[in-house]
Structures are given as C-alpha cells and as structure tokens.
C-alpha cells in the first residue's frame, strides 16, 4: 500500500473502475491528486477520491468505525469540502447534518468564530444558533486537519452553543477527517478529543512531511 500510494499520488489519471482485490484501510488514498497550482492550495486534492464509488464508501466506513456504538445526535461538516464527507457520514448514520459555513453565507441568526486556515489566512466561520441543543453530541467532520485552526474554530462554535464534541465515558463523540497531520494543532485536537482518520501509521510520516 505504501508504494502504491507514493506512486499513485503522482499520477494525473483517474480510474473510477479499478477496485483492489484486497481493500486495506486507506487504499483509496492513492486516488487523491497532487497540487499543481502552487502554495496557495492544499498539497493534495481528495475530490478524485470522492468520484470513486467504492473509494468514497470505504473512506466513510473507515472514518465511522471508531465511533461504532457511540451515541451521536448529529454530524456537522465544515465549509466546504467537509460537507461531502459530513453529509455522507450523516446519511450512513441516519442522522441530521449541520453545515458550518464561512462567514456571510447564512441568512439566519448566527454565532461567529475567527480563525486562521492552513495557509495562514485570517477567516471567520459561522453556524446557525438554532440547530444545536445543549448536550447534543456532535461528530465534527472535515476533509483534512493540517494546522488544526479550522477544526478548533468549529469545535469552539459547537461548544459555545452547548453541543458536546469532547470524548468522555458518557459522550464519546468527536472529530473525523481523512488525514490529521501531526502538527502542533493536530496533536492538540487528538489529545483532547476522540478522533478518527484514514491514514495508516506507516504512511503518516509521508503525509506529515509533504
């Protein structure tokens, strides 16, 4: 799998038909496309993964596996690519889906939180104030956790509205993303919340050192 990922991550070709005979956790990571547009973009684009029917299905299943048996009231996805995995996870769990939006897109009453994204740009995200009831257990989903700034802002919004993201004996929900890099922010999230990601341990150094 390691050699396959390293080779395919450099491939510009999209094969939506091939499914490996043995589907190890993370096999679909090889479907992701490398950045060809420069430093203002993320280093990998997972949207090719989402085009692959089995790849998307297995990715969502792997993200949800650590939460099997946990009480989850709602799934929240982060604008914008977190909407894809978040909505897929919500449909699989048969739960509602809450969109955490970039500022200026919601025409209802909201609560806002400033943050810095992976490129260091200052932004603001918002969530509607009427969607989360106190004590609701929220599974937060995004495409990627690089510096952790975006996810920490989303956690702050959920918790300010009374939702529960932190893991404990009675409320074991948390955070899910395709990759959680071992940055300072990424480590903080993994230390404080129950987390799930799709990168096998032997591939993690490659994703951290991109």
Automatic annotation (TrEMBL):
Keywords, in A-Z order: Cytoplasm, Glycosyltransferase, Purine salvage, Transferase
Domain Phosphoribosyltransferase: start-end pairs: 69-164
Subcellular location: Cytoplasm
Main enzyme class: transferase
Gene Ontology terms describing biological process: purine ribonucleoside salvage
SUPFAM superfamilies with a match to the protein in the record: PRTase-like (SSF53271)
Pfam families named in the record: Pribosyltran
Catalytic activity field: AMP + diphosphate = 5-phospho-alpha-D-ribose 1-diphosphate + adenine
Pathway membership, UniProt: Purine metabolism; AMP biosynthesis via salvage pathway; AMP from adenine: step 1/1
GO MF terms held by the record: adenine phosphoribosyltransferase activity
A single cellular component GO annotation: cytoplasm
Signal peptide annotation: none
Keyword Transferase assigned: yes
EC number(s) stated in the UniProt entry for this protein: 2.4.2.7
Quaternary structure and partners: Homodimer.
Family affiliation: Belongs to the purine/pyrimidine phosphoribosyltransferase family.
Name of the protein this chain belongs to: adenine phosphoribosyltransferase
């Amino acid at each position: 799998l390691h050699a396959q990922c390293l080779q395919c991550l450099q491939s510009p070709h999209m094969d939506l038909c091939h499914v490996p005979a043995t589907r190890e956790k993370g096999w679909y990571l090889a479907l992701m496309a490398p950045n060809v547009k420069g430093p203002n973009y993320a280093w990998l684009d997972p949207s090719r993964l989402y085009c692959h029917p089995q790849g998307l299905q297995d990715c969502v299943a792997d993200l949800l596996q650590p939460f099997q048996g946990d009480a989850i009231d709602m799934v929240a996805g982060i604008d914008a690519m977190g909407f894809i995995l978040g909505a897929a996870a919500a449909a699989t769990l048969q739960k509602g889906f809450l969109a955490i939006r970039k500022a200026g897109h919601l025409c209802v009453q909201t609560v806002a939180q400033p943050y810095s994204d992976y490129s260091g740009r200052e932004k603001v995200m918002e969530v509607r104030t009427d969607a989360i009831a106190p004590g609701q257990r929220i599974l937060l989903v995004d495409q990627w956790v690089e510096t952790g700034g975006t996810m920490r802002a989303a956690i702050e919004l959920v918790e300010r509205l009374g939702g529960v993201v932190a893991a404990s004996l009675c409320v074991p929900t948390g955070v899910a993303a395709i990759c959680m890099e071992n940055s300072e922010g990424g480590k903080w999230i993994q230390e404080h919340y129950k987390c799930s990601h799709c990168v096998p341990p032997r591939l993690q150094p490659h994703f951290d050192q991109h």
